[in-house]
Amino acid sequence: MERRAVKIAIATAALMAIPLVGACSNDSADTAANTVTVSASVTQPSVQDSVGLTTLKPKVAWRDALATAKKEAGGEPTSIRLSHDNRLVYEIELVSGTQETSIDVDATSGTVFQRDVDHDGDMSEVIDLDGIIEPDRAIAAAVKASPGRIVEWTIERDKGRVVYDVEIRDGSRSVDVTVDAKTGQVIETDD
């Protein structure tokens, strides 16, 4: 969620920073040649954006995306997120010692398209994926607790246990539903 907010903030700042450019010439005959037109396009949400992850299904399973990320960078997972930002993307955080690597895997093709490395990894944040439920079951529990469109889901550690954090939107209302990744029980809803 933080990455998406940063991308939106950067895009907004870039649009606001576009200078208005006009022609500045003493010779009126050269005015047309010196005029620069600047236009900014605002994109409307696509049909896929309005549908959400309830309908959009990745062609690549999250476990396969994790295997790809681990092959690319090594380490153990601290979070696995599926979101849709122009395309379905798995954002996988891996840690090895103090090195944390963020790998973005296209959920349609299975290819890695972005990799970032930080040196603030924490092995205590590693998530144990043995015996966890599949995302569909966590999503079903989350939507039952708070109906709406699924924006993203994340498998992560929260207060010592592995959970699914499911972000749901219903109109202008956004709700985070936390589901126990082992039992499928809703732990908390936060809007």
TrEMBL record:
First and last residue of the signal peptide: 1-23
Keywords recorded for this protein, A-Z: Signal
Residue ranges constituting the PepSY domain according to the UniProt record: 64-112, 133-189
InterPro entries, alphabetized: PepSY, TonB_box_CS
Top-level lineage group: Bacteria
Protein name: PepSY domain-containing protein
Organism field: Gordonia phthalatica
